[in-house]
């Protein structure tokens, strides 16, 4: 059953804590993306990766970090430097940049 | 803003009516895509239209692209309650896509 998965569905972060959001795909896509969505707004690009071991900053990368050690996986870490992390985080993948993106179900991050 | 901007921000119609949403942009594009998002869910791809295309259909969906006016429209015909969602256009900008704020469509039974 092909697709893109994100976990957990909900995540709670304490002040000063780093948290990592998981994103896995078995679609054999080369490119992967992380977006942030705030209530009633569109998506803003955090980071993207065109191939393994390579990634680029998007429009709002400050306070976030990523890795791309495997083609299937693109985890996002929300660091303590991100002062307003409460949002809905969406991961996507595509065969290449500028191609159709397929989205995961999202992770909602809340701050305690 | 260089984002694709959808218009209207919100739209309420009766079941069976047609719904039209528009997307405008400011710089040239490679292609433009439309996505649907149900509340609290991920986005679902609807249609991709390339810059050399003028119209595409998929079931009850029709997308048009007018590059001279830098605009696109999404038409949903014979709407159903299940069409209630937010609809986003994503404009190809360089290597990535820029998403507009979306149109929230409510289809009333």
List its traits.
heterodimer; A: 112 residues; 46% strand; B: 109 residues; mainly beta; six-stranded mixed beta sheet; 11 strands; globular
Summarize the structure.
The complex is a heterodimer of chains A (112) and B (109). By secondary structure, chain A is mainly beta. Chain A has strands at residues 4-7, 10-13, 19-25, 31-37, 43-49, 56-57, 64-66, 76-78, 87-94, 102-103, 107-111.
Task: Describe the fold and architecture.
The complex is a heterodimer of chains A (112) and B (109). By secondary structure, chain A is an all-beta fold. Chain A contains no helices and eleven strands. In chain A, β4 and β5 form a beta hairpin. By secondary structure, chain B is mainly beta. Chain B is built from no helices and eleven strands. The radius of gyration of chain B is 13 Å and the shape is globular. The model of chain B has no long low-confidence stretch (mean pLDDT 92). The interface between A and B is medium-sized, with 25 and 23 residues.
């Amino acid at each position: 059953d092909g697709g893109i998965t994100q976990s957990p569905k909900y995540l709670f972060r304490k002040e000063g804590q780093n948290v990592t959001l998981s994103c896995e795909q078995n679609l054999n896509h080369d490119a992967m993306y992380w977006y942030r969505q705030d209530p009633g707004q569109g998506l803003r690009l955090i980071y993207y990766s065109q191939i393994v071991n390579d990634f680029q900053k998007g429009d709002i990368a400050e306070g976030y970090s990523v890795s791309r050690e495997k083609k299937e996986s693109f985890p996002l870490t929300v660091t303590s430097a991100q002062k307003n992390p409460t949002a809905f985080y969406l991961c996507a993948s595509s065969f290449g940049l500028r191609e159709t993106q397929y989205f995961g179900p999202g992770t909602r991050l809340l701050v305690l | 803003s260089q984002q694709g901007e959808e218009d209207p921000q919100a739209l309420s119609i009766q079941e069976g009516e047609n719904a039209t949403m528009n997307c405008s942009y400011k710089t040239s594009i490679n292609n433009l895509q439309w996505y649907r998002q149900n509340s609290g869910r991920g986005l679902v791809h609807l249609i991709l239209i390339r810059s050399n295309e003028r119209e595409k259909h998929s079931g009850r969906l029709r997308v048009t692209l007018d590059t001279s006016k830098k605009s696109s429209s999404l038409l949903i015909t014979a709407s159903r309650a299940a069409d209630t969602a937010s609809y986003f256009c994503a404009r190809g900008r360089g290597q990535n896509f820029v998403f507009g704020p979306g149109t929230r469509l409510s289809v009333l039974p």
